[in-house]
C-alpha cells in the first residue's frame, strides 16, 4: 500500500506570477502583464474593461513579481533541497514570440528556459510545462482579438512546435492550457478576450473555448509526433459542486454547475461535445462555428492524463434561495455552513479533494494529476525573521491525507501532486503579494518594496519530510 514509488511530488508556479523581467531580452507584452493590482483588476481580467497597455494610475504586479527571471538558479536549488521530483512551471509566450505572429522565435527567450531546464536537470527535477498559463501576447489581442479568432490556433501551434522541438531532451510532460474553464469566468486573463458593448458574451466565450479545444487537441497530436515519449494533459479548475440542501432544485443547480466545469474535460478527455452541451448551446443559439475537420480532430487526439487545481469545493443553491455567498477560486458560490474559511474567504474542504478525485476518475478513467493545491495566507515574520506557518501545514496535511485515501482506499490512479506554490508569488485573482502560498518566503511587500531575499518557512522542512517519506510522514 502507499503511493507508488515514483509518485511525482513537487511544486507549481506560473511565469507571469513569478518571473518579472517583462521588458528584458526582447520579451513582448502579454495580457497578464497589464492586469493591474487593486479595484480595477476584476473588470480587466473579466474582459469588461479594455486595458491593453500600462498607465500611470495603476500598478502592475507581474512587471517584477518575485523576479524568478534573475533568481531561478537559487529558486530551483531550493526546490531541489525540498526534494521536489517535479516542477510545474509555465512558458511566457511573449519571451518566445514577442508579438505572437513572428516567423522566427526570440532566441534569448528560448535560451532562458533552456537554462531553467538545465538547472532542473542538475537537481533531478522533472519539468511539467504549462504551455499557456493565463498567457496571451498583446500583439495577438490587438490584431486578432485573442482566442475569439480561429487564427489563434495556428499561432499557438507554432509556439508548441518550437517548444516540443527545442526542448525535446529536457521536457516530456506538458499541459496545454491552465484552468481552461476559467475562460468562462476570467476571459481576458484566460483567453485575451475584451468584450465589445452589446455583444453576446456567452457566444464569444464558447467560440473562444472551441478554438482552444481544437488547438489543445492538435497540440496532443504534434507532441506525440515530435516525441513519442511526450505526455500531454488538460488542466481545469476543479472542486465538486455540493447542493446547498437536498431539495431537488438545489441538487439540479449543483449538477448544472459541475457540467459547466466538466464540459471542457468532457471534450478533451472523451473527444466530443457532450450531449448536454450540444443541446444547451444550440438552444441558446451560440453553437460555435466549426471547421469540417474539427470533430475528427477532437475525437482523435484526446489527452493522455487529466490534471486539475483544487482549492475548495463549491456549494450551490437554486436561484432565488437567498443563501449567503462565499468566495472561491474566481467563482462565488453559496456559503457552506459545515466548513471553515481561509483569510480570503475560500472554503477549506480536504474531504472535498477526495470527493473530487473520485468523481473525476469515475467520469474519465484516465490518470489524474493534482497540479495545484495550497493555502493563500498572510505570513508575518517574527522578531527573528522566522515564519511559523502551522496553518499552512495543517491545510496541506489534511489535503494530502484525503488524496492518499483516494488512492489507497478508493483506487484512484494518481500520477502526482504539485502544491501551489513552493515559493511565494503574486496572486492571480487579486494581484496581491500578501496572499502567500510558499514554503519559501520572498521579501517583497505589497507596496513593491523588499529585498527579494528568500527565507525558508516552517512548512519547508515539513514538506521536505513528506516527500522524503513518500507521503508516509505527515508530521
Ligand atoms: C489558480 C491559478 O486559479 O489558482 C493560479 O491557476 C492561481 O494561477 C491559483 O494563482 C490561486 O489563486 P490566487 O487568486 O490566490 O492566486
Explained architecture:
The structure is a single chain. A hairpin with a 5-residue loop joins strand 11 and strand 12 (347-348). Helix 7 runs parallel beside helix 9. The radius of gyration is 21 Å and the shape is globular. Helix content is 38%, strand content 14%. The mean pLDDT is 96. It is of the alpha/beta class and 475 residues long. The chain has helices spanning 15-18, 41-45, 68-82, 93-96, 107-122, 138-144, 151-166, 187-191, 201-226, 248-270, 275-283, 294-300, 350-364, 390-408, 458-468, and strands at 8-12, 86-90, 126-132, 173-177, 231-237, 241-243, 305-309, 314-316, 325-326, 333-334, 340-341, 347-348, 368-372, 414-420, 440-442, 454-456. It has 15 helices and 16 strands. The strands form 5 sheets. It has an 8-stranded parallel beta barrel with strand order 1-2-3-4-5-7-13-14, surrounded by 5 helices. Strands 6-8 form a two-stranded parallel ribbon. 6-O-phosphono-beta-D-glucopyranose binds at residues 14, 17, 178-179, 237, 309, 329, 372, 376, 420, 427-430, 435.
